[in-house]
Description:
The protein has two domains: 1-39; 41-80. 70% of the residues lie in helices and 8% in strands. It is built from two helices and two strands. Strands 1-2 form a two-stranded antiparallel sheet. The radius of gyration is 27 Å and the shape is elongated. The chain starts with a strand and ends with a helix.
Amino acid sequence: MELRIRAGNRAPGIILWNGESMNKLVQFIKESYVELRKVVWPGREDVVSSVKVVIISTAIIAIVLGLVDVLLLFGIRLIF
């Protein structure tokens, strides 16, 4: 995709598209749509099980980090 920046009467940074660039953009969007139609999307069961794994692992990590925080706080209070 070719972008040309022209100075002149326009504000700096304004990008002008030529006709070939627009055709390439339209072609890219069409090809992207075709590729998305080929995607095998996960089923409801797969999504639900993945969400469960994420929630459970997040909870476990939060509990472990909370315990480490409490232990470090207890240790610092003992020292000072």
